[in-house]
What does this fold into?
Amino acid sequence: MTEPEHAPADEDLDRYRALLTPEGQAILGELRGRDVTGAEALRLGTELRRRYPAGLVVDALGQQELRQRAAAKFTRAADMFFTRAGWEQASAEVVARHRAPRFAGTSTLVELCCGIGGDLVALAADRHVLAVDLDPVHLWMAEQNARAYGVAENVRTLRADVRDAPLAGADAVFVDPARRTGRGRLRTGESEPPLDWCTALPVEKVGIKAAPGLPHDAVPAGWELEFVAVDRDLKEAVAWSPALATARARATLLPGGHTLVALDGDAVAVRAPGEYLLDPSPAVTRAGAVEELARRIGAWKIDDRIAFLSVDRPVDTPFARTLRVLDSRPWNQKKLPALLRSLDVGSVDIRRRGLAGDVDALHRTFKLSGSLRATLVMTRVDDAPWGFVCVEP
Ligand SMILES: C[S@@+](CC[C@H](N)C(=O)[O-])C[C@H]1O[C@@H](n2cnc3c(N)ncnc32)[C@H](O)[C@@H]1O
It folds into this structure.
């Protein structure tokens, strides 16, 4: 189905609703679990059109394709409804489930900008939620998706501009402002509604999802910023109002649920690199918790401004990737291919922090045939350009 990014369109809603009719359900049932992303889609489409209305087949195929893609975010994707923009912007289940318990003890929550309901399905598991969105298609999908997760009886939906949403009597608000409109992506730092509007909401307990690049001074004093990574991918920042805040800044790593808070403490020493290099999760760096991590594991810094840490023994921490150093020396690009060959390196990933360079061009200069898979770290040690050749411990 060709769809607008966010333009409220009731005629689009009718097309999605048709997927709930007996015929729509029959087609979706036949497509369930099928891969419709490749050439198979053509063959399936032709075959289905012999038995069902062509428009309905096209819409069902589009929905199955989104369900297939959304399986990376939702365990019940096969029973959910998505628009492309709604799926792309939706919070993944693992993130939404981590976030929802912060609202423990609240019985009535208003969710502003609920989209297709990625957060809603987790928020409504333990409380009543009024879900508000301007887009009737997203709102309808949020209802269907709440049903897919068995929480529909806790959900009421309201089609409205968030500025007109009734907040009287709400214990808490969660808002995930749009970072794109029907005309495309908004500029970095912009959202609809804007962050300033969200932080001024007249409710004490507020959570705001934001882009992971959110600067620390973008929220008022007393608010917490939580930076969330899933595996090594930094996904988002969440701003928690003082009534929900538990720290100044926090790094959260999912799916494990490990969290690290940025605390004030003794300065971490800067020393020459040891046998192991630690590459902190981007959530840890964004939260400003690198020094806290160093203090916890007894690591030191290799440069005042670079977020790599070092230790002399292998460390098992969820907050950083540990690399064993095979070679450590001042950066010398010319001698690098020979060095890698002498270390029996066959393939190399490049990790760059604090040192400029064209990674693709660099890759092309290596003609490697060794047996080791290595990580080449381009960085700075005590402000001097430095290279490490590392392997997994
Ligand atoms: C980022 S998405 C929400 C995603 C959602 N948290 C999820 O996990 O599925 C933002 C939503 O805000 C809605 N929106 C944007 N501006 C709005 C406004 N002024 N009033 C109500 N909804 C709005 C869009 O229609 C879109 O569905």
The radius of gyration is 25 Å.
